[in-house]
């Protein structure tokens, strides 16, 4: 025990009781409750254990050991100060309870120019100031505190001198404890902290500050409890290790934080194989910090689970996973880069789950992924780039104020809402995009789809710019573009509804509609392919549709262009197998064609447009189905009709050129009319109905005027010319209801006259004028064959050919028929007689008709004479 004066030499034996300098086995006590005791040693000292001072406020002892000391036992410093001017080699179970306040006052522990080795455990419940001189404290020069294997050092310490070092060897632990966050541990001005395998640090109820420091942790753990961590200006913070599970073994690096805030400012921070538990804690990265994370895992939990990057801070994440309970916030030029990593952000009920603003940026590459289960918000020039990575938004993705999202070689999914406004851009390249919820792009925003596939099972609305290139779009529900849509080499498949209410440009693009596809305002196509398989393709009122080198096909649905619409086709083919309703004007250039095998309703004009480079192929309509015109229209192109062409009641149609072949029918209904400057060329099929033909009619080859089932009444304001292989058909319902043809100019007939007569007229004399005309042609001509058949008016079925006395009369102004003694072939054969001189079944040539008439008069005379003889014989029998 010390018994010397207040200021005496350790090495003076008389200062000790019992007398003698302490040796390695002695327990040393320095206690003085009344005096300020200072014990000095210039050389090294040894002792077994050391107790300095009593409990405050009566602890006034100071121990100066210039040469350091060696102890085999515990060192207890209670309410006292120790000044070391040498090497301190601590022994197991040393306890420092110095309760130190500041430099140069009682209760201060100063270590100057010393190497302190902590062999086992040092407990310091106060403040250790290393090289304190009143205002600054550090470990001087090359000196260090070393925590040996399995040692324990609990302290509240300041390190702030260049080259000072704190080393934690394997198994050692540092506990930085305080009463509240105002208690601090600092690493400053080039000081170093090294943690080796299985070592650890805990910051509890205090703050950790670093400034121009170096912190290297290898398989070490950092835990915080109610702490604030500021990794500051130009600090290098590296943490490496190897964890394998969420509850890692002791060799892992662990950063655990509870109810704490960690802030990194203008620092270089690296974590490798590190596990972060952030419970109700916040991780902030500011300034020009460079944060590196590799093979690590960050788990934030609780309401305080935040990760924030601001002020040009950069965070690089390699092969790591980050799970954020609350939200991720990027701002002020911050940059977050993922390499083979994933971030999962839980839904935040009260705020955004992901925010990026202020020219901040985020990149995903090497099969990374970002999953946001809440609201994703980008604004103020923030950018996100994702390459070979997955991008998933479960709730609402909101882009505004010139923000940009670029997705390349990735899967992109929005299950909730996607909103793009205020010049924001969403760009996809070589990606697969799913919009499972509803999406909208407005206010000068832009959407780009390049070499990608876009699935829209939900709704998609655009009032801005949309560009798709080398891509596929599949719309299952509703897609609406009311802005500018440019499609280049795109396949657009619509099974739901597709509406383009703005400007649409399709180049080398295919549109296939199984649902409803509607276009308004303007559509411009080049080398486009539009196919309506089963749905409707509609161009709304007063819109413009222009297509060059295009193919338009209606397979089974409806293609409708409404009133006021202008359809301009340049070297384009329109093929209809379904239903086409033409309410607007159509302009066909040479090389363009409309081919109809379905139902085509024309209610407006189809005109020729000479603006084309293809002058060799005429503009034409090829009809193999049904075309009907229901208004006064002009068709200023060639019509090739092999189907049904109907001009409805009181409708008038002008055609440039009309050619009909086998299988075709031209029907005029209820006073409809057809007009042309060229003759109607009927090479096959029929012309019939009730109406006017305002041109000449040429019946060639197998052409036919009239049909058996309808009593036609046609007025031809031109010539009627009939070739030898053609047919004129007359239907006689009654002697007052029969087919009539009025030719306002000349006729030249040949071929066959085919008469269908109501079977109820058999046995009656029928005299009808079937053709009236202005004059006959100079060559005259007559029917080469007249054939009479009957039909059943009940079912309109044909009966059989009949034998009649047929007397045709071709006068100056009309052509009439007299049919007498018409009997069917069966009745005639039953009588087994043939009228001499009668023409049976058919009358061939005009001379034969005259001869038949003479023979018929002789026959009548004989018949009348025979009847008279029979009557005389009957009178004689009465006598």
Automatic annotation (TrEMBL):
Record's keyword annotation contains Transmembrane: yes
Keyword Transmembrane: yes
Membrane-spanning segments: 834-856
Alphabetized InterPro entries for the sequence: QS_Complex_Regulator (IPR053370)
Keywords: Membrane, Transmembrane, Transmembrane helix
Protein name stated in the entry: Transmembrane protein
Organism per entry: Cavenderia fasciculata
Gene: dicB
